[in-house]
Amino acid sequence: MSEEIKKFDVVFECDAVNPGRMRTDMQVRMLEPDPFECELATDEMGFHGGDGSAPTPLMLFSGGLAACLMTQLRAFSKRLKVDVGEIKLATRLHWQGVQKGREPYETEPVSFEIDIDMEGSASTQQRIELIEAAKKGCFVEQTLMRPNIIGHRLKVGNDWVQV
Amino acid sequence: MSEEIKKFDVVFECDAVNPGRMRTDMQVRMLEPDPFECELATDEMGFHGGDGSAPTPLMLFSGGLAACLMTQLRAFSKRLKVDVGEIKLATRLHWQGVQKGREPYETEPVSFEIDIDMEGSASTQQRIELIEAAKKGCFVEQTLMRPNIIGHRLKVGNDWVQV
Fold it and tell me: Which chain B residues have a beta carbon less than 8 Å from that of A67?
């Protein structure tokens, strides 16, 4: 039984609407493996033309990245029977933007660092093996390993055009 | 003046704590360009050992991705004077997991699709140029273009070890 290989799909949809200011309201749905939905919103601060009514998009992104790794550390600590007690992550994400005159700016990631502090009686080797397993199981981390995954389509009349 | 090149940093920190179940509580801070902070939480549904008390990590990630592109579409539509009115994004994110026996599963992204529907009087060419500018300015999209950006350190006693 230990050699049985199972594949499973994980599918999320997000419908976002922005009427005209910086606030965006979203319906987010997990379709697979189990239906679950929620509402989220983002906004920007005043310096970026927003009203500060919700977290910024990068706050959701930062939280999603940290929490995805955290969830796999927790889930796999149970599966691997590694005693780690409370887990704390300190995540720091650094991007840089470049702007020429008044043109739209361009951005790039500079460094993302995740510091992991775990309680419990596990050995350092066990903790390292747990982190390695969690990295491979973390949907967000694996997404960040794979460039050019996003496709875009623009609605033109009743058609969709690849952009 | 139009040739002046400015660089700016965008820095976020996220402190996450998980006491033992699936719920993770987070303090998220924007440090640059302007201080702003919020609290976020994630949880899992019962099938994954959670209590369903908050959105899942991939819901935050999905919302962060969609909202980051949306925000740049809106901001750059103003800067480029492209009349697009209300903007709607339909985002679909698909991952696949592979599990051997009872080992921790491994994951990979399969496809991310973002369908963009904009109102207003802009020409198709203007809309395409706006999307291209927004992709280059979207922090999350540019992060997904760059593999191997994340570093991890484990706390071992009073030291930090690269993992």
Answer: 16, 24, 26, 40, 42, 57, 60
